[in-house]
Write a structure and sequence with these properties.
The chain is an alpha+beta fold. It contains four helices and five strands. Strands 1, 2, 3, 4 and 5 form a five-stranded mixed β-sheet that branches. A hairpin with a 2-residue loop joins strand 2 and strand 3. The longest helix is centred in the middle third of the chain and has 11 residues. The protein is globular and about 30 Å long. It starts with a strand and ends with a helix.
Length: 90
């Protein structure tokens, strides 16, 4: 299993958010999110938005923390990345 967390950099709703992704499959990502109790509404086509407060728990479940550049390299290489142009009109 390879589920990745990038640095939480996105402020919103009184906290800072990051991304939880899989570099293997969406099935793996959804299964991990289900185990962690992350609601499906947090899913955004190729990642889950997660608050920084959840990072220790997610790492304890097996998520690997990586830098933003590493995540940006691995997600497109997996074929799971949804381009910005494809997010509009969903």
């Amino acid at each position: 299993m390879t589920v990745l967390l990038d640095p939480a950099l996105w402020p919103r709703h009184g906290t800072v958010w990051g991304h939880l992704v899989s570099d293997r499959s969406l099935e793996e990502l959804h299964a991990f999110a289900d185990r962690a109790g992350i609601p499906r509404r947090a899913f955004d086509l190729d990642h889950y938005d997660v608050p920084t407060e959840r990072y220790p728990e997610l790492e304890a479940l097996g998520a690997e923390r990586v830098g933003s550049r590493e995540l940006v390299r691995r997600l497109p290489a997996s074929g799971l990345r949804v381009a910005s142009r494809d997010r509009h009109g969903r």
